[in-house]
Amino acid sequence: TEASALRKSGVQPGDPKWEALGIFHHITMPRVTAAVTGTTPDGTAISGDYKSTDAFPMGDGFEENVQFLELCYLDQNEVFCCFRGSGRSDWAASPTALLHLNG
Fold first, then answer.
1. What would you measure as the largest C-alpha separation in the chain, in angstroms?
2. Which distant-in-sequence residues (6+ apart) come within 8 Å of 47 by Cβ?
3. Does residue 88 have a pLDDT over 70?
4. How far apart are CA 83 and CA 93, in angstroms?
5. In the predicted model, what is the mean pLDDT of the chain?
6. pTM of structure
7. List of E strands, 11-80
8. CA–CA separation, 38 and 55 (whole Å)
């Protein structure tokens, strides 16, 4: 399998080369970007029409925008330490993490 070949070459989950072949970077992100921009990753306009209440060319894209965010999972003890002022992983002290810790 592709995963086995990557591991044999020393590439592990989390490495940029591994993640580039994952569902998000390889499939989801390019498809969502293409839908919003109206162009494929190589710059070709998408042909066809969206057929909903108001039909319009797919190549026009959408007026909306998209922002992709990376979600990192942290060890609960590391997150707790950053709240106690240890100085570690200060970026992890987000409101979402605080809500989770406060139950």
1. 56
2. 58, 59
3. no
4. 7
5. 78
6. 0.57
7. 49-50, 56-57
8. 14
| Predicted local distance difference test score (pLDDT) of residue 47 | 93
Which residue type, as a one-letter code, is found at position 70? Answer: E
- The separation between the first and the last C-alpha atoms of the chain, rounded to the nearest angstrom, is 42
Say if CB 18 and CB 6 are below 8 A apart: yes
Report residue 14 as tokens: 């989390």
Q: How many Cβ atoms from other residues are within 10 Å of residue 79's Cβ?
A: 19
CA 98, CA 103: separation in Å to the nearest integer?
9
Could you tell me which residues are beta bridge partners of residue 57? 49
Structure tokens belonging to residue 42: 């190589």
Q: Specify the amino acid at residue 89.
A: S
Side-chain-side CA neighbours of residue 47 (13 Å): 0
